[in-house]
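Sample intake sheet
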Amino acid sequence: MSRVVLCVTGPMAAGKNVVSSLLEERGFLCVDADLCVHDIVESQKDKIIERFGALAEQRGISICRPDGSIDRRALGSIVFSDPELLKAQESIVHPAVEAFLNSFIDDNPQKNIVLNATVLYKTSLIHRCDAVIFVTAPFFVRFFRAKSRDNISTLNILKRFYSQRKIFAKYKKIKTDIYRVRNTGKKESLKKKLYAVLQLI
């Protein structure tokens, strides 16, 4: 079988990381685009402060920690409140993410690869993927998972859920194979569903 590049995606707290870890058990190299974003946000700190600093100050929010690094949670409370602000942040961050992930794919030509990313459809990288695995989970499972995992307010969780409500439709518009995998929290069940999908790819 030739090398396969997969996009593992889905809304917040659906279980993308669990699916990625199961694919790692099958020999895939996985890269978490969200973790890449964390580093890239810091590398683009000057541009982010220039774009959002004044707005944050108006709202009484500090987007920088005492050590000078970007407070991503504070930044998120701003950009997830307005689609235009989110686009502004993405215009700063996405080009650097694309460059990093393209290099990752090119540097591992013999390996099956997973790109774990929520909004890969917004980048040209989606066209390098042979298929998309879209992870879903019941609303309240996602909510309580996010609440315990991320330690953010209920309002901000709901804002993020709302901002991601049309993600599946966005991926459906792209001319690539897409497979939905429902994660109810039972790992063995999830594994069976995932491995069944792999047989189809």
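Comment: The longest helix spans residues 83-106. Residues 132 and 178 are 5 Å apart (CA to CA).
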